[in-house]
């Protein structure tokens, strides 16, 4: 089965808020609290977009995004953080074209990033 968005954040509030906002926009969302749960979800299903928190209890969202892209090359990855990214993580985000959302952010910012990611992947597919 294919879902639109995978949200990975250890904050229940963030997961619920994003699930509600993205669901209201008509997107099918699966939310996970840990990197391990997200890895399991990706083994069982496919996602067009992954929104990943950098600081997870069992991993790093940037590294998880790189891993996910190796598995599903067309997956769009968006990273979210409440802090400044270390230079090596910032470099990985730039190298893999992962936009970074700084917490707190508005649901509209997430939707704009998702629309932008889908538009870019559609243009790439036509090229």
Note down, in words, how this protein is organized:
The protein is α/β, with parallel strands linked by helices and 127 residues long. It has a single domain (2-121), classed as 3-Layer(aba) Sandwich (Rossmann fold), CATH 3.40.50. It has helices spanning 12-24, 35-44, 61-71, 87-96, 107-126, and strands at 2-8, 29-32, 46-53, 55-56, 59-60, 76-81, 100-102. The strands form 2 sheets. Strands 2-1-3-6-7 form a 5-stranded parallel β-sheet, sandwiched between helices. Strands 4-5 form a two-stranded antiparallel ribbon. The longest helix has 20 residues, at 107-126. The chain is globular.
Task: Itemize the secondary structure elements and their pairings.
Elements: E1 2-8, H1 12-24, E2 29-32, H2 35-44, E3 46-53, E4 55-56, E5 59-60, H3 61-71, E6 76-81, H4 87-96, E7 100-102, H5 107-126
Parallel strand pairs: 1-2, 1-3, 3-6, 6-7
Antiparallel strand pairs: 4-5
């Amino acid at each position: 089965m294919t879902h639109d968005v995978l949200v990975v954040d250890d904050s229940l509030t963030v997961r619920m808020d994003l699930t509600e906002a993205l669901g209201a926009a008509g997107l099918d969302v699966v939310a996970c609290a840990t990197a391990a749960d997200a890895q399991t979800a990706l083994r069982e299903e496919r996602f067009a977009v992954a929104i990943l928190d950098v600081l997870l209890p069992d991993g790093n969202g940037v590294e998880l995004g790189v891993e996910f892209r190796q598995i599903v090359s067309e997956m769009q990855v968006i990273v979210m953080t409440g802090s400044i990214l270390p230079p090596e993580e910032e470099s990985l985000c730039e190298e893999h074209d992962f936009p970074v959302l700084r917490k707190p952010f508005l649901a509209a910012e997430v939707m704009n990033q998702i629309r932008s990611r889908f538009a870019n992947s559609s243009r790439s597919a036509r090229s």
